[in-house]
Amino acid sequence: MISNALWQATRTVSAAPRRKFRISRGLAAAVCLIGGTAVSAAFADSRENPVVPSFAVSPDGGQIALSNDSGLWIMPVGGGTARPLLPVGTVAHNPGFSPDGTRVVYQSRQGEQWDLWIADLAGGDPQQVTRTDYHEVEPVFWPDGHSVVFAADRAGTFDIWELHLSSGALRRLTGRSGTAYFPSVSEHGDVVYANELDGRWSLYLLRTGVTTLLARRPYPLQAPSWRPGGGLVVLTEQPAPTESKLVMLLLDADPLFKDLSRGERVEATPASWFSDEELVYSASGLLWSRPLGSGPPRSVPFLPVVP
205 lies in which domain range? Predict the structure, then answer.
């Protein structure tokens, strides 16, 4: 059993605009990251039983992919008609757009086993990327779009791996003691990931084969996300089971943390980006957008709608 990874369970109910819409039963089940939240009072198992709906913004900032136990959905950033990429009821989590914005990689479970899949936004049957006896989770595309990077327990505990999509060549990127979480790959090919060992959490940078320790804490550091252009990552810190916050780590000569939260309870799912100066994250059961500089966060409305 994989332990010590914090996910906050959310109960999500859409906040409808004043116009009246007709929402299908399947789409209503897929409304996520909107409405109230129920924060877990204890650390929960995130690998084999993820409970937080996850999302990603397309590279052009125009669409959002939302995924949960009801499927994988694409909708415009401004809200509107949600389009299912998978049959309603398909379990999907942790979507990630390809660099050209035409595909989405995600993890899906058939029975108790997590594998990786890719769906094409233009339609057609999704492609199963992995089919093993192990769990492959938390996938992201490599900057050239030819590979995916993910966490997998192929070596007995979770490490970070890279799989070339056309050749099937597999490369293990990490081999440290402990459990590796949530790889994020910059457009320059730098990998940042979280690691847990004996109740201590670390954040590592993997650059040109050299691993550098960026931070270490006695509580969870999770879900790092590179800013477009690099130079900094945002991630979730969890000082207590009922307390979480969004922080920014500036990767200067001496890495510097800055608290970005405003009292919200931030979900341990990777943030995404509208631009290199505006990020999107999940907190208190809502999606929020906020600039990296001054300025308050604003809620991002999403409602799966059938015209």
Answer: 89-295
